[in-house]
Amino acid sequence: MQKCRYNGTPIYAFNVKGKNETINYSIEKQWKKAGEMNELICDECEASVIFRCGKVNIPHFAHKSDFQGGNPCSYSDETEEHIEGKKLLLNYMKLLYPDIYAEVRYKLPERKRADLYFKFEDGQELIIEFQRQRLSVSYWDNKREFYKKLGLNNIWFLSGKKEDLEELIREYQLTFWNRMILNDSNNTILYLDVEQKQITIIKKVTVIDNDTNELIYDKLFNRTYGLTDIKILPDGSIECDFNASFNTERDKFVQEYLENKRREAEERERLRIELEEKKKKRLEEQERRRKEEIEKLERLSQVAKQNTYTTDRTDAWSDIGYSRKSYSSDTYKQKPKKSYEYYSRNDDYYKDKVNKAISGYKFGIDNLVRILTQCGSSEYSTIKKFFEAEINKGNIRAENVYREVLRLSGLD
Ligand SMILES: [Zn+2]
């Protein structure tokens, strides 16, 4: 054990060494003698203890060998690191606040102890706990509750070396303990490297995208300080540039994130426009082809129509063995009549012939003359009907053409 009481006052075995780690022989001699005189009392069970200061073990107090187990002492052995850590923090606080009351392994109600207890000049109290990394969750949780109940500010350091930082951070991801301590201590874990006299602050930094409500940043930000570069304040907070620098880092991230987001949005918009234009072009192309197709069909249909006229005429001419080169009413009359069933036509056909003759169609009159000279009375009356309809409308040209047709046909 490191602590005992000497005439009622707490003393610490590690204080036998001076600043340069050399043994103060007068203290050693004094404490050894006090032990023999039963003046050193165990802080836990109040049995007499002796002071040991050898070459192998670190200086410590121990129950006397005749210590009977009737009153078992719970002052268990501590690791050297734990002892050194407490010593480091004790001396650091005493240096920082020369008038502070400081006690290691401070007795609290309910048989509890605080690793380090400080009372400042103005009456503020502060507990500092220095724990090995894997203390039990329930211990930590219960003790925090306990301090809360007593209204005692408390600050917890875990033992950890800077070179183990990566592993510490990995452990945060894995162990419930670390996640819990983070969540319950302002997202901060403090590590004390006893050997290097450095503390490392690890803080969980999260950023949420307000638009999407998504967690976009969840990182452990860490920074290591020499113990003398920071200041532990009476309320348990730590004065250093940590918050400023982690804010800077977070802001930088947020800025980059927003910039990326903006760029991505622009890119999405660009792609959207590009796609839209492609779609528009595709539709235009489809429309163009459709029109082309229609025009093609129209052209074909016109050609077909023209072909129909030609065929009509050709057929008509050839059917009756007519030669365009020589025709006259006599010729027509001389030709043998063919049965008009061959070219029996409906009214529309004759109406078309009449209209063509009236409008000056090249062989309009000739065609009518041919029909009239070759065909029967029904054709004649049909043709007459269409001419008369036009003439009755006052179409003088129709009248002239009709007269000419009749004349050439020998029907006048
Ligand atoms: Zn004891």
TrEMBL record:
<feature type="coiled-coil region">
    <location>
        <begin position="254"/>
        <end position="307"/>
    </location>
</feature>
<dbReference type="Pfam" id="PF06054">
    <property type="entry name" value="CoiA_nuc"/>
</dbReference>
<feature type="domain" description="Competence protein CoiA nuclease-like">
    <location>
        <begin position="78"/>
        <end position="210"/>
    </location>
</feature>
<feature type="domain" description="Competence protein CoiA-like N-terminal">
    <location>
        <begin position="35"/>
        <end position="66"/>
    </location>
</feature>
<dbReference type="Pfam" id="PF25164">
    <property type="entry name" value="CoiA_N"/>
</dbReference>
<dbReference type="InterPro" id="IPR057253">
    <property type="entry name" value="CoiA-like_N"/>
</dbReference>
<dbReference type="InterPro" id="IPR010330">
    <property type="entry name" value="CoiA_nuc"/>
</dbReference>
<protein>
    <recommendedName>
        <fullName>Competence protein</fullName>
    </recommendedName>
</protein>
<keyword id="KW-0175">Coiled coil</keyword>
